[in-house]
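Researcher: Please translate sequence to structure tokens.
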Amino acid sequence: MVTEKPAPSPAANRTRDQIATHPSRTLKTLMLVTDVGFVLYWVITALHVLPAESLFKDYENDLVAAWNWSFLPLDLLVSGTGLTALALARRGVPAWRPLTIVSLTLTSVSGLQAISYWTIRADVSLSWWLPNLFLLLYPLVPIAALVRGLTAAGTGSPPTAAGGRTR
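Model: Translation complete:
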């Protein structure tokens, strides 16, 4: 005797569709804070707003300052892709997913690069390590979930209301 599984309820399909078509409120908040935070950091840095005691070790060294400024393009790319992904998600444009993966990957890379540098220098300062560990680690779970969602059925398409895949 063959038993069929009961069809998922319409509420279950809506929830699955919501997950497939919109980032979570938590992810949106984390991305927005990070993306706006990067822009603010670079404006504050360019305007020399932070007092010297708030800067990381050897900041006045030209090589260290150059190392810090080398993050500008990466961080602005993080912000640009992240804010664009959030705008696309708000409009329901499916391209938000791959763009979010790019943004989160770049965010993690930015944190990894800073932590790697301070590890090599054996320089531990929680005021700089904690934000960069956050940048390194917070994107990992959402990246995995987004990639899993894109590849679940072997297509890059989100599920339809009926549970199938679009092309």
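Researcher: Any highlights?
Model: DSSP finds seven helices and no strands in the chain.
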